[in-house]
């Protein structure tokens, strides 16, 4: 057996061949990686929310968390949602304009949002016209049923789900008259017919109702409350969003109507978002009865809330507590 060491020329040739093999292997890896990327389809999805509102910023964060969590768990998926976020600026026309831009220029396959029922009524028409699904986690008005458009999907409970709970409270206390006070919007008006009908079933009548213009100044609300104060004391049911409710209850306190002889019930439009409204607003609403959907306790919910708290502290956003709308936003993307 020849045990002589290999010549320098043969060793160089061997090293050269190894180098060629390694370069070929790296090229093959790059090819497979690029092929895999090419196969991974990006699907643009629009998100239309009011980015400056506490609910809007919370919803966007929850949507992004759901997106990241989903693809961590299902990293092998060859389709991937690509979020395109637009600001509705708390305006129905701006929301519709943002949706139209996403549909025509971004070619989105669906739109998540907008936040309010008023904005949704505009955007749903666009979705129907261009056959793009509109998926809302916060537009709760019963006047926006899926039957009006097969391209509208609601992932939140609509407001009709709470009327039986309200009627049960009214019946338990033996109240025979309720005065609904609601904001004069799609959200506010949508619940009233269902509420009135359900209250009649428990022998409670609605002598009259008060609509509050969402753009009213506090002194204008005080004028409406003055009329109520002069006519009678009683039980009032307030159906408003977090944009109008704090201003309204500030006026109620100034009118001296948080005293004995008055009773106040709020729907989940306010009770779902009390924490983000801050201590000053909550102080003005002491003694009010509110209804809200019940969440089943689960390990997943506890973990998510802990994650949200940790993120809020880390990012310095401790003033943005998690609400039900955030959970619905998360589930909208995950499911």
Concise structural overview:
This protein is α/β, with parallel strands linked by helices. The protein has helices at residues 8-39, 54-73, 92-104, 117-130, 163-173, 186-201, 218-231, 245-254, 268-271, 274-277, 279-284, 299-315, 324-334; strands spanning 41-49, 79-87, 111-112, 134-136, 152-154, 179-183, 210-212, 235-239, 263-266, 289-290.
Write the layout of secondary structure elements.
Layout lengths: L7 H32 L1 E9 L4 H20 L5 E9 L4 H13 L6 E2 L4 H14 L3 E3 L15 E3 L8 H11 L5 E5 L2 H16 L8 E3 L5 H14 L3 E5 L5 H10 L8 E4 L1 H4 L2 H4 L1 H6 L4 E2 L8 H17 L8 H11 L1
Parallel strand pairs: 1-2, 1-3, 3-4, 4-5, 6-7, 6-8, 8-9, 9-10
How would you describe the overall organization of this protein?
With 335 residues, the chain is α/β, with parallel strands linked by helices. The protein folds into two domains: 40-157 and 295-334, Rossmann fold (3-Layer(aba) Sandwich); 160-290, Response regulator (Rossmann fold, 3-Layer(aba) Sandwich), CATH 3.40.50. 51% of the residues lie in helices and 13% in strands. It has 13 helices and ten strands. The strands form two sheets. A five-stranded parallel beta sheet has the order 2-1-3-4-5, sandwiched between helices. Strands 7-6-8-9-10 form a five-stranded parallel beta sheet. Strand 1 (41-49), helix 2 (54-73) and strand 2 (79-87) form a beta-alpha-beta unit. The longest helix has 32 residues, at 8-39. Residues 1-6 and 11-36 have low confidence and may be disordered.
């Amino acid at each position: 057996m020849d045990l002589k060491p290999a010549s320098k020329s043969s060793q160089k040739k061997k090293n050269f061949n190894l180098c060629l093999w390694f370069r070929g292997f790296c090229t093959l890896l790059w090819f497979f990686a690029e092929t895999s990327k090419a196969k991974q389809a990006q699907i643009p999805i629009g998100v239309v929310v009011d980015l400056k509102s506490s609910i809007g910023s919370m919803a966007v964060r929850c949507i992004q968390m759901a997106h990241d969590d989903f693809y961590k768990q299902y990293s092998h998926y060859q389709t991937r949602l690509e979020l395109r976020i637009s600001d509705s600026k708390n305006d129905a026309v701006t929301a519709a304009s943002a949706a139209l831009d996403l549909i025509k220029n971004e070619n989105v396959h669906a739109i998540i949002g907008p936040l309010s029922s008023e904005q949704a009524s505009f955007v749903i028409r666009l979705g129907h016209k261009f056959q793009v699904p509109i998926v809302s986690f916060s537009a709760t008005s019963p006047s926006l049923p899926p039957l009006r458009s097969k391209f509208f999907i609601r992932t939140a409970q609509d407001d009709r789900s709470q009327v039986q709970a309200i009627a049960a409270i009214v019946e338990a206390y033996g109240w025979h008259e309720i005065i609904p006070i609601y904001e004069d919007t799609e959200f506010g008006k949508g619940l009233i017919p269902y509420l009135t009908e359900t209250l009649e079933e428990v022998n409670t009548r609605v002598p009259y109702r008060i609509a509050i213009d969402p753009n009213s100044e506090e002194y204008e609300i005080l004028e409406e409350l003055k009329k109520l104060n002069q006519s009678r004391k009683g039980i009032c049911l307030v159906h408003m969003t977090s944009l109008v409710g704090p201003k309204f209850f500030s006026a109620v306190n100034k009118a001296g109507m948080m005293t004995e002889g008055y009773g106040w019930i709020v729907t989940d439009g306010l009770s779902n978002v009390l924490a983000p409204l801050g201590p000053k607003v909550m102080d003005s609403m002491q003694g009010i009865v509110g209804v809200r959907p019940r969440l089943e306790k689960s390990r997943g919910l506890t973990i998510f809330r802990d994650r949200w708290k940790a993120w809020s502290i880390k990012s310095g956003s401790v003033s943005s507590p998690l609400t039900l709308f955030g959970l619905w936003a998360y589930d909208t993307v995950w499911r």
